[in-house]
Amino acid sequence: MPRPPLYISREDLGWSATSPAAYADPKSGLVVHYDGSDQGLVNGDLDDFLDYWQRTRDFHTGPSRNWRDVGYSFAATPQGHVVEGRGLHREQAAQPGGNTTHYSVTLGLGPGETPTDDQINAVRWLRQWLMEDHGVSGKVLGHRDFIATSCPGDRAYALVKDGTFTQAPGAISTEGDNPLIGLREGDGKATGKKEEVIAVQRLGTFAGFGSYLAPYGCDGEWGPATSEMMLALRHSVGSSVTNASSITGTAYAHLIQAVAIAEARKLIAGGGGGGALPATAEISGTVKLKGA
Ligand SMILES: [Zn+2]
């Protein structure tokens, strides 16, 4: 296959066509990196990312790093572009232990940011191109597979581990999955998850725990109050978790269970929660009452 469909070369960036870094022929796979601090690029546009890429190169070639070029082979943008760094057949600097054996791609995200679907696909296109045209293994690793580091962040690393990056470009495997699962404290507008957080907050409110969100209400920002709400809600259905700052599968089940209980209480209390229920209901059978 030719280059990935959205490809920005060094020449497009105004850089020398070939990186001054030493020659290498990485064959063992592709390593995913991130930035380490939230850059806000998920909600930005391509120009924001290209500005970031230039700043990163300036930093890497400046006094604090003194590298010969930007440290990575490539970047994958939230808009779906593969951007050249050192490019093909060059040694890298950002992944000691794998600088000559594996190519590198950074997402430019921080720990509170989730790779976009387009960005995941950019990594997939890059991987496919390296495999088909350059004889590189299809293996995808995270920086933390080489050394003790937070890189590439828990979110991207989960995608490394579950095989999301090693699928063919196209539909994202998480499509059709529950969009609430995986939400966590810190999510909101800045991470592109405002509507999803509102859904959690509204469900918690329907379950009777809306007072925890005062005074902001269902604002779509998951801060400590939303975690407190989830903790109280989960305890109410018998859970003994001590940390409820994310929506795991079990947390999601508890959320739905708590809403169902609240609705059932409304029905029992005759509150008309179901709207169309009859005013009276008949129950047959035997009821034995014990004295108090
Ligand atoms: Zn890294």
TrEMBL record:
PANTHER family, sorted: PEPTIDOGLYCAN RECOGNITION PROTEIN, PEPTIDOGLYCAN-RECOGNITION PROTEIN LC-RELATED
InterPro entries linked: Amidase/PGRP_sf, Amidase_domain, PGRP
Annotated N-acetylmuramoyl-L-alanine amidase domain residues: 28-153
Name by which UniProt lists this protein: N-acetylmuramoyl-L-alanine amidase
Species lineage: Bacteria, Bacillati, Actinomycetota, Actinomycetes, Streptosporangiales
Top-rank lineage group of the source organism: Bacteria
Species of the source: Nocardiopsis changdeensis
